[in-house]
UniProtKB/TrEMBL annotation, chains A, B:
<dbReference type="Pfam" id="PF03454">
    <property type="entry name" value="MoeA_C"/>
</dbReference>
<dbReference type="InterPro" id="IPR036688">
    <property type="entry name" value="MoeA_C_domain_IV_sf"/>
</dbReference>
<dbReference type="InterPro" id="IPR036135">
    <property type="entry name" value="MoeA_linker/N_sf"/>
</dbReference>
<keyword id="KW-0479">Metal-binding</keyword>
<keyword id="KW-0500">Molybdenum</keyword>
<protein>
    <recommendedName>
        <fullName>Molybdopterin molybdenumtransferase</fullName>
        <ecNumber>2.10.1.1</ecNumber>
    </recommendedName>
</protein>
<comment type="similarity">
    <text>Belongs to the MoeA family.</text>
</comment>
<dbReference type="InterPro" id="IPR036425">
    <property type="entry name" value="MoaB/Mog-like_dom_sf"/>
</dbReference>
<keyword id="KW-0808">Transferase</keyword>
<feature type="domain" description="MoaB/Mog">
    <location>
        <begin position="189"/>
        <end position="327"/>
    </location>
</feature>
<dbReference type="InterPro" id="IPR038987">
    <property type="entry name" value="MoeA-like"/>
</dbReference>
<comment type="function">
    <text>Catalyzes the insertion of molybdate into adenylated molybdopterin with the concomitant release of AMP.</text>
</comment>
<comment type="pathway">
    <text>Cofactor biosynthesis; molybdopterin biosynthesis.</text>
</comment>
<dbReference type="InterPro" id="IPR001453">
    <property type="entry name" value="MoaB/Mog_dom"/>
</dbReference>
<keyword id="KW-0501">Molybdenum cofactor biosynthesis</keyword>
<dbReference type="Pfam" id="PF03453">
    <property type="entry name" value="MoeA_N"/>
</dbReference>
<keyword id="KW-0460">Magnesium</keyword>
Length: 429, 429
């Protein structure tokens, strides 16, 4: 009567899914719309920075050798022969004991090889000419930002796959990228099943609950960098759901269904996979919550069957869907950031399956601490709001004590991990 | 000839600015467009969760007392009198040695007080009736999720000022928020000045550079949660800039100008402030980069005069503009997240001013480590792309050694700090 499912290790399950990970195309967007997107091309310098020797201060451009004998008692004296605002250039050659008033960012005039800051000089007028004096020697090159000292032409400054943050935006502008190639966001369909589900605007009825999974997953998709296509919620009916899934698979890059994956009589997704001719990668994972998570593949497209239970659904998304989305976006570290943290509450009871406990990670005295949030019953939707990490408690025969170092996976970190699934998540016996 | 400016401590400067911080209005948006916005109202439970006693598993609902004598040798035997799918209800009362087949999430029928998981039972047929037997006793309440055990009606689940993450989205859906009140994003104007500036699409010219600050600040505004209104770049001309600033101040919540704040001859923003009748909060801060950062106030609106130098501009934004934006959005911890980290490179040279060094903070063995990135010359735009933190080196007479614990301010953390400016940033003598 009941199908017997064989659980596989979380690490193995992720590895199976990642075999189908692929890079998406790139598309060009205006620089002004690129914030937060992922670079689809390397950012290359189209010129040296600075692209001319320039002054980092307001002051005077001079020849250093003219200051050799300058001192408190015997200041060196310069005739001010002109001035250069930022953006303009001084076309004459500067000669001995001549100075040019120069503004921050302006080009050093020919002949000059040092800049003296304005506050170290004293100006005066004589015979209708302007002079400046200074009281100490300067070295050749003092206070000059040299051509190419920051960046050399053709340097690769930021690699494809990097998030466009404000610093990257500044570089793109500096090097003339008025449009920029970014990774296309994958289109991710959501099909929610469950006869017990009400729409958000509907009043409650006996035995029913409002559909929260769709909105949660939609937000998870956006956080991971995808575009949401919501197909609606459907009653537990084989024909309706089969037609819906079949149609949807053609319109999206990735499809997520929620509900219908358990072994209960009403859980008909396995039959849908069969009729679709889908290749089921796995239908049981040695983890809690989310052990019934099922992933299948049809013509190279992934079909994620997440649990209808909110917490299990949430965990399933972050473990299996997120790295697929991030790889599509050309991210090099597509998995959640993995770190170590001190466990602030014990979990004395052992569990054969690896647990992903919703937790809050905080930095205390430079050290990560992990505190479980809420009840951590798999039905406890309220704790998901507070969580910023999963506390990973490997399955086995022992419990976990307060003060132990445990693995945490961060939910909100921009930084990712390359392959966080070393032992003890790699195998399950 | 030169105006003498008195530097004030970073902490004092931030405190001055924060006197003018205010909360913005709230607006309603559809739940589907609320991801990443800030809650403008508390999320309150409109019902208990579960709002009926329900089964967390597929199995059978029974009366626990009927299992008292069940054992391997003498299984208890139940007549299966019906079944309940998720979303439906069983209307009859269940009597002694009767069981109801129940699906995950379905309501416990009247009379039952425990659920037995499907895999612990064995079904059989007799006299055209369906039976089930089980081999161990169950306690009253076993495998039942009780009404209200997760959330009680009227509970405040998430407070105003919280970012809407996937977990919060799930709660909003569960409690019927098809629209949600969120904090309005402040409109922030950008006016860039500098005769040396070219537009991004223009080819380079001698003495000129492309305008990168506008794009950088636009991205910083988006990261902080504001809406960008870009007014363009203008040559260093008093009349043009005065008219621009005056007009702009009426159209935005906050105005940022870049360039024109130094003491050079072409830096005429001080004169603009005077003509506007602005109250200048400060025009010199004991920090590097960004010491010339100027903040003024006109009729309660803030006017941020950031340096034209990219790094100084970047730092000025994060220190002074970010907390104003975050307060407008009702965030309770509006400043950058402050943590401690191990300094991975020494800064032997002392500096009287507090330095904000662009750095990369990483978690290594559960401990934060801070590595400076790039040259950290204030002109070095390339390092801004790699930075995810400022390493704070307080001003004074000593340098900083590798291995010391230093304060870091995180740039990409969603979490903030309430008031990170304790000593040594609070005072400057």
């Amino acid at each position: 009567m009941l199908e017997k499912r064989i659980p596989i290790a979380v690490g193995d399950a992720v590895a199976h899914v990642m075999k189908y990970a692929k890079h998406g195309e790139v598309e060009r967007v205006p620089l002004t719309e690129s914030y937060g997107r992922i670079l689809g091309e390397d950012v290359v310098a189209d010129h040296d920075v600075p692209h001319f020797d320039r002054s980092p201060y307001d002051g005077f451009a001079i020849r250093a050798e003219d200051t050799k004998k300058a001192s408190q008692e015997h200041p060196a004296q310069f005739e001010v022969v002109g001035e250069i605002g930022a953006g303009s250039v001084f076309t004459e050659e500067v000669k001995a004991f001549q100075a040019v008033r120069i503004m921050t960012g302006a080009a050093i005039p020919t002949g000059c090889d040092a800049v003296v800051m304005l506050e170290l000089t004293e100006g005066f007028q004589k015979d209708e000419k302007t002079y400046m004096k200074l009281k100490r020697p300067f070295q050749l090159g003092d206070n000059i930002s040299f051509k190419g000292e920051d960046v050399k032409q053709h340097d690769v400054l930021v690699e494809k796959g990097t998030v466009i943050n404000p610093g990257v935006a500044a570089l793109l502008a500096t090097f003339g990228y008025s449009t920029v190639a970014v990774a296309r966001r994958p289109v991710i369909g959501i099909v929610t099943t469950g006869s017990e589900l009400l729409e958000v605007h509907e009043p409650l009825e006996p035995g029913k609950i409002r559909n929260s999974n769709s909105y949660m997953i939609a937000a998870q998709i956006m956080r991971a960098g995808g575009t949401v296509r919501y197909y609606g919620q459907f009653a537990d009916d084989f024909d309706t759901c089969y037609e819906m899934v079949k149609k949807t698979m053609e319109e999206v890059d990735i499809l997520i269904t929620t509900g219908g994956v358990s072994v209960g009589d009403y859980d008909y997704l396995p039959a849908i996979y069969e009729k679709l001719g889908a290749h089921v990668l796995f239908n049981k994972v040695a983890m809690r919550p989310g052990s019934v998570t099922t992933v299948a593949e049809v013509n190279g497209k992934l079909l994620f069957g997440l649990s209808g239970n909110p917490s299990a659904c949430y965990v399933g998304f972050e473990l299996f869907v997120r790295p697929i989305v991030q790889t599509f976006l050309h991210r090099k570290q597509p998995h959640m950031y993995r770190g170590d943290a001190i466990l602030m509450k014990g979990f004395p009871k052992a569990n054969p399956f690896t647990r992903f406990v919703r937790g809050k990670v905080e930095i205390v005295n430079g050290q990560l601490q992990a505190v479980p949030v809420g009840l951590d019953k798999s039905s406890a939707v309220s704790s998901l709001a507070d969580a910023n990490a999963f506390i990973v408690l490997p399955g086995g025969t022992r419990g976990f004590e307060e003060g132990m170092t445990v693995t945490v996976l961060l939910l909100e970190a921009e930084q990712g991990s390359e392959w966080p699934w070393k032992e003890p998540f790699q195998s399950y016996k």
